[in-house]
Design brief:
- This protein is mainly alpha-helical and 116 residues long.
- It contains 2 helices and 2 strands, in the order ββαα.
- Strands 1-2 form a two-stranded antiparallel ribbon.
- α1 packs antiparallel against α2 (57-78).
- The N and C termini lie far apart (64 Å).
Length: 116
């Protein structure tokens, strides 16, 4: 996990990790969990297809097709890789520009007028 540093005027360092990705072990666990859930749904679909084949054939065909397609989808999702970190604003906050203050004018001095 990479943290970025930001310097403050008092010399202290602040680390921002809000945009950091999840750890590798947690990411693998999440992908394994999604795969197991997909395979459980596939198992239920195949059992439904076998059970309903002679009772409700159109529903059984849909369940069989779902049971045939789900392994491919589950493998593609499991092997999709790590998630992208969310796009956040810049880590470093720029200081606002201070307005330039001109020399004070005398009370009798008038601002220059446009000659037009």
């Amino acid at each position: 996990m990479k943290a970025t540093r930001k310097q403050h005027g008092d010399g202290g360092q602040v680390f921002r990790i809000t945009g950091a990705r999840t750890g590798l072990a947690e990411d693998v666990r999440g992908r394994q969990r999604r795969y197991v859930i997909s395979m459980a749904i596939r198992t239920v679909a195949v059992i439904l297809a076998a059970t309903l084949w002679n009772v409700e054939r159109p529903f059984a065909v849909v369940a069989l097709v779902a049971g045939a397609i789900l392994p491919y989808i589950a493998v593609v999702v499991a092997n999709a890789g790590r998630e992208r970190p969310p796009s956040l604003p810049s880590t470093f906050v720029t200081a606002p520009a201070r307005p330039v203050i001109g020399a004070p004018r005398g009370e009798d001095e008038q601002p220059p007028r446009d000659q037009g």
